[in-house]
Amino acid sequence: MSNPNKNKYLASLTIIASLILPIFLPAFIMMALVNFMPNEITHSGIMSLFILSIALFIIAGIFTKVLSLVGLTEQKIEELGFLGFIISVLTSFISIVVGYYWMKTLHFTSVELSTIGILIIAAITTIVLTALIKILEKL
After folding, report:
1. Cβ atoms within 10 A of the Cβ of 19, count?
2. What pTM value is reported for the model?
3. Which helix H or strand E contains 113, and what residues bound it?
4. How far apart are the first and last CA of the chain?
5. Alpha-carbon distance 108 to 19, whole Å?
6. Is residue 42 within a helix (H) or strand (E), and if so which, with residue range?
7. What are the residues whose beta carbons fall under 8 Å from the beta carbon of 97, sequence distance 6 or more?
8. Helix, strand, coil percent content, the chain, rounded in steps of 5
9. Closest CA relative to residue 100, chosen from 124, 116, 120, 122
10. What is the pLDDT of residues 91-121, one digit of tens each?
């Protein structure tokens, strides 16, 4: 028989991860990569990375809303199968890249990323978030 406390722990961990990771994942990735790519990532402090991550999450929400207004709702994307998966992944990637450049152009962030830096961060974030979504769907 399985331990009910273990199931509660796993459920709690899953809920916390699904709430925190999508919002703060770019900041965690930038903190990890700043030592390996000092020329591509420059920031004034940890808080600036977290604020940028929150802004990127909001911009991704706006992209999702625009897609639903165009007719690509979550249900429609699921019906499309692999094509829907590709659309979802590309939307996530593009929202991070475009969101950062919007924030940089409007001078809302002090984080300086090179073109290679933002592409690497967007790619890693997209891969990890896609894997997280697939894992959460299986639970």
Report:
1. 10
2. 0.85
3. strand 112-113
4. 19
5. 24
6. strand 41-42
7. 118, 119, 122
8. 80, 5, 20
9. 122
10. 899 999 999 999 999 999 999 999 999 999 9
